[in-house]
Amino acid sequence: MLVDSHCHLDCIDLSEFENNFDTLIQQTHNCGVEHMLCVSINLKKYPEMLEKVRAYPGISVSVGMHPMADESETFSIDYLTELASDDKVVAIGETGLDYYYHKDNPEWQQKRFREHIQVANQLNKPVIIHTRDAGEPWLYYVKKKLIYVVVLSIVLLKHRHLQTR
Q1: pLDDT at residue 100, rounded to an integer
Q2: Which of 44, 51, 84, 97 could form a disulfide with 134 if both were Cys (CB 3.0 to 4.6 A apart)?
Q3: Which domains does the chain have, with CATH numbers?
Q4: 35 beta partners
C-alpha cells in the first residue's frame, strides 16, 4: 500500500487529467496510492479544497497557513479551530518558519506558528511543519511546544491503525 503523506491536490493542473478531478484520483489509485493527505497552505482556498476531496474516503486533509502565506489573509485561532474540528481534518498545517524568502517579518511567522501549535494541542492533532533557514527558532518551538502533540499523535495513529486491522 502506498500513501502520499503530503500533497496539494487543490494546486494540481487538471489539464493532464481531462480537467477532471475524478480522473486524477483514479490514476493515483491505479498507481497503487491508496491514501493521500491533502495539505492546506492557506485558509482562503481551504473550503473549496475540502469540498473537492470530501467524498473520497482515501483522502484526509490538514488545515493551516503556510509560513509564506499572504500576511493580509484573515486568520484567527477560533476560525482555525472551527475548521480543524471537521472529521476529515487529521492534522494542523502546513505551518512553520521560512526565513529563506521571508526574512523581513519573523515575528508574524512565529506568531502564526504558535497559534497553529495552540490549536493542535487543543484538538490533539499533529502539526505539519515547514521549515527553511529557521534552525534555532524552529527547534525552540518543537522542544517547548510540540512534544506532547508529537507523542500523542504517534500513539493515536498507531491505535487507529490497530483498530482497522
Answers
A1: 83
A2: 97
A3: 2-164 (3.20.20.140)
A4: 3
